[in-house]
Amino acid sequence: MSLLELRRVSKSHLHRSRRVEVLREVSLEIDVGELVAVWGLRRSGRSTLLAMAAGVDQPDAGEVLFDGVDLNGRGATALGDGVGYCRQGVGVPNGRTVTDNVRAGLLARGVQVPDAHLRAHRALERVGVEPCGELMLGDLDGAEAVRVAIACALVLGPRLLVIDEPTKGVDLLQRDEIVLLLRSLADDGIAILVSDGDGSGLSDADRSLSLAGGELRGKTSPQAGDLLPLQRARGRSTAA
After folding, report:
1. Fewer beta carbons under 10 A from the terminal one: N or C of the chain?
2. Which fold, 4-239?
3. DSSP for the chain?
4. Is there a contact between 129 and 144 (Cβ–Cβ < 8 Å)?
């Protein structure tokens, strides 16, 4: 059983007086430790697909299963309880430091302040922006903002990370570093689903799919012979 499974998911939106079909019976499976990228043009429905994969939006038809449980039945409780969802950026400036924003989800779940602070520090260190901990959100550049958004999800210990366009607005020279970070998180055993609008985030993905006309194209389920994340990581280490 795959960690995440979308079964014949359909979704339509009302645009002015016209109902537009965004997704048409889309199916997708993602295993533990996989990095899967979905490419699509603007208004292709890729953000809608990711929102449903994370359980923050519901399909008109079909099922979205996380670890065998229908996310429609869990709703927002799935977020922070196995599923991490990153929208573009980290939100509007709110007068709090980066560390305060990263640990906010832990404090809301009753984690004691010292432990929450330590875990926030480790999450920022893991994504490579620990020196930014005392900065305000508005002080971050594009790449730093993406990394902090990932840290906000990562600090809750997700098994699945859903990230909407992680390389959008990031300097060209820093995009590869973001992709390498996602690759390393997948090699650690986290399933990762990302969207991409210009093709820059497709490198190093286990599977790269395309979304157009409401249909998802490509290999939508992993093959039984795919390498395990640990095997892949060992292969990279040997080649280095």
Report:
1. C
2. Rossmann fold (3.40.50)
3. --SEEEEEEEEEEEETTEEEEEEEEEEEEE-TT-EEEEE--TTSSHHHHHHHHTTSS--SEEEEEETTEEHHHHGGGGBTTTEEEE-SSS-S--S-BHHHHHHHHHHHTT--HHHHHHHHHHHHHHHT-GGGTTSBGGG--HHHHHHHHHHHHHTT--SEEEES-TTTTS-HHHHHHHHHHHHHHHHTT-EEEEEESSSTT-TT-SEEEEEETTEEES--S--TTPPPHHHHHHHHHHH-
4. yes
| Model confidence pLDDT, tens digit, residues 147-163 | 999 999 999 999 999 99
For residues 160 and 110, is the Cβ–Cβ distance under 8 A? no
C-alpha span between 202 and 209 (Å, rounded): 9
| For range 219-228, the mean pLDDT | 70
